[in-house]
Amino acid sequence: MFFASALVSLLLASVALGRPSIASRQNRRRSGPLIPSNGPAANLISNTTVSHVKYSQNWAGASLESPSGTYTSVKGTFTVPTPKARGSGSHAASAWVGIDGDTCASGIMQTGIDFTIDGSRASYDAWYEYYPAVSSDFTGFSVKAGDVITLVATKTSSTSGSVSITNETTGKSVHKTLTGSHKLCGKNAEWIVEDFEEGSSLVPFADFGTVTFTGAKATLASGGTVGPSGAQLLDIEQSSVLTSVSATSDSVTIRYV
């Protein structure tokens, strides 16, 4: 996207004054594929037979793999947390559901809620993304701490699908049909809290407390549904391990530690 110089100046000014405008945020914010960790915990696991957890720099949660068949949709409901900063400046995290990005990273279809804390002010953004394109916000969709949110991502072909977010607390919902040039394999279904990117680096990761996805299920192309109990568990390691994840037959709990 190209901007006139005057508009660029306005956007830069909005960033300097506080929370970025929608245009500048969308130009910079991106989710991405799982980035493996090379920290001590990851190295310890790689040298043992323990395989129930995998460490990542940016993803915490659960990722289902489909060795036979493909996933066509993924769904989960969670309560929006109140983020806390781990130091000075702005910190953020994002809760989302999506298809692909773990063992198949050519494309990812995902939707979720960002939560940002800057000083004492928390803000929330609803977004969608067909990676590798940058994310886009759902404008005019109100979210606050304590709201119950249902996320759905649906793959309709190898290069198309749709996403929806419903605020169960307010009764409002948004929907978007997506197309892209990068193939969706349908090999992964995920429930994730992410340390996302702005520009080319991860944002300072917020203490999000606990996020629990309930009613978590993925639909197979064959028509069956599966829960996350057999999923690959993912924890974020950035110098130290920052999360603790568990899963049941229909839920995924991600706790900041």
Automatic annotation (TrEMBL):
Q: Which residues form a coiled coil?
A: none
Membrane-crossing residues?
A: none
- Protein name, entry field: Acid proteinase
The cross-references to SUPFAM superfamilies, in alphabetical order and at most eight, read:
Concanavalin A-like lectins/glucanases (SSF49899)
Q: Where is the active site?
A: 194
- Signal peptide limits: 1-18
Please give the organism.
Answer: Mycena citricolor
**Which terms does the UniProt entry file under GO BP?**
proteolysis
Which of UniProt's keywords are assigned here?
A: Signal
Top-level taxon in the UniProt lineage: Eukaryota
Asked whether the UniProt record includes Transferase among its keywords, one would answer no
> In the record, what terms sit under GO molecular function?
glutamic-type endopeptidase activity
